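FAQ: What does a multi-protein file look like?

Like this. Sequence, then tokens, then the next protein.
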Amino acid sequence: MDEKFIILGIGLILAGFCILFIGSLMNMSNNNEGNNTGKDSGNFKGGGVIMLGPIPIGFGTDKWMMIISIILSIVLMVVAFLFFKFFRF
């Protein structure tokens, strides 16, 4: 049973790397085709959360992205709590 989780974890990590690589290639091809003016559009928005124990520290390019990041981190904490409550190893 433990080997299945190890294989699943490695597979998810590799899938994440593949998604990042493909997304980067798609972004580069879109920028090269549609942006001939040389100006940067500046439409990028992003955010993230760093968890220090139970304390979330949110950051983002604007307030809305920070709120979304914190909400997603709370949802992830609830899912992890439920997972470990119902699936004890």
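And here is the next protein:
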Amino acid sequence: MCTVVPISLTVGANRIVPAVAIPHPLGNPELPCDEEKLLRRALVEKALKALQTEVEGQTIFE
């Protein structure tokens, strides 16, 4: 998971899952607690799916 996709591409990461923002990569403090929990869960599920996906070369999981 990363907040700046171009940096991940530059260093050669093979699985890239974009995060929310630099100060809060896995959440959004502006959201109500229940919505933030859903956001965090969705990000973690996307990252787990990325780990289970076979890739060739760099892949960005939107």
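Q: Is there any per-entry metadata?
A: Some entries carry free-text notes. For the entry above: The first strand starts at residue 15 and ends at 16.
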